Amino acid sequence: MLTKLFILGLNTLILSGLLGLYALIAGSNVLLGVASSLGLSGGVFLVYSLLPRESTMPSLVEYTRTLLNGLTSTLEDLDLLDAKLCAVKKGGDILLVFSKALCPLEVDPGIGFAGGSPYLAIPIAKEFTESIQEESGGWTLDNVENVLRGVLVDELAACKDVRASMEGGFLRVHLIGLTQPLKELSKYPVDPYVVYTTMALARSLPAKTIRVINRSLTIDEEVLSIGVG
To answer: What secondary structure letter does DSSP report for 54?
Structure first.
């Protein structure tokens, strides 16, 4: 069992249940639809976390597709298909936030309104990957590369290698040798490479926010520009 993904799926299902209960009390069909989509996403993570390792890649592709369908439906209901993605640390929690605002900090798990835009905030597992401890010289690019390789290459087999650099004050992550089935899913409004990379960085880096600024996709590589604050 992949404990980290199991915890993530469980958190999402709990959030879905609470939102669904509120939707029933408030009589909101829109919120009920959002809760259903979130429940689907949480179920995807739970099922994938229990799969045998030998069936990882085919199952990862299939369940990632299901996850993206559910998440896309949720964002469409909230008019957030063109939202920016960021991760916010609030207290002891890490929230994956979809919003048109510039990475709002005052957010809570679930759906809300901040910075002139609605948002969807999903709590992610605190133990998704190992932490990078900040030293006197700060975190290093080598440490970032090692953490991302552990998640994207070794655990998910989503690409063949990872390179990191600093350009113009932003972290640039190069995902090299993309797995073709997952690369096809990057055409969705929500890119799985963006989601998985953001989650890993949010858990590992000693930063309050991880903000995806831009991404570019070539034949065999995806490059993400990320603000670390």
So the answer is: G
For range 93-98, the mean pLDDT? 87
What is the per-residue pLDDT across 199-222, written as a single tens digit (0 to 9) for each? 889 888 888 999 999 999 888 899
Q: How far apart are CA 127 and CA 47, in angstroms?
A: 18
Q: How far apart are CA 177 and CA 130, in angstroms?
A: 24
**Cβ atoms < 10 Å from Cβ of 49:** 19
Report, as an integer, the average pLDDT of 186-191: 84
Cα dihedral across residues 41, 45, 47, 48: positive or negative: positive
Output the CA angle 169-175-176, nearest 5 degrees: 130
Single out the residue of 100, 114, 130 nearest to residue 203, CA to CA.
130
- Rounded Cα gap, residues 87 and 210, in angstroms: 5
In order, the DSSP letters of 181-225 are HHHHHTTSSS-HHHHHHHHHHHHHSS-SEEEEEEEEE-SSEEEEE
